[in-house]
Fold:
Amino acid sequence: MNHLVRETTPVVIYDEYGTVRKIRTKQWKYEHRYPYGLHELFHLTTGPMERLNLYGEEQHTSTVEQLKHQLEGWFLQYTKPELDGVRQQVYGYGQLQHAGFLGKGRKAYHSGDE
Structure:
């Protein structure tokens, strides 16, 4: 007898790197860059290579609103304010030390110049 396993709880992935926070569901990936864009929305089942950014398209407004609300709610619940680096510049060369308040105002991310 073949038994199917049904998902009772959807799998959602949350991620961040500096000023970019992301939420990924089975169908969607939404990236929000703080404090301003370039935000991105990808439909993962019709565009698995993430080449077509759907952010800003009117037909996806409610999807963006729902994902952003879920993203911000999760980070509000689980982020430690003293470690939150969402307002610090990230250069893509790695993290040097604590970000946020615990970084004591020092540069948290490597710029590649050092």
The helical segments are 61-78. The chain has a mean pLDDT of 87.
